[in-house]
Amino acid sequence: MNDAALGNIKKNKAIDQYAVVGNPIEHSKSPIIHTAFAKQTNQAMRYTQQLIARGDFKKDVNAFFTQGGKGLNITVPFKEEAFNFATALTQRAQLAGAVNTLSMQADGSILGDTTDGLGLVNDLKKHHFKLRNARVLVLGAGGAVRGVLEPLLAEQPYEVVIANRTLSKAQQLAETFKPYGNISACAFIALTQTQYLTGFDTVINGTSASLNGDLPPVTASIFANKNTTGAYDMMYGATLTPFLEWAQINGVNLAADGLGMLVGQAAESFKLWRGVIPDTESVIRRLRSTP
Ligand code: ATR
Question: Domain span at residue 88?
Answer without folding.
Answer: 3-114+261-289
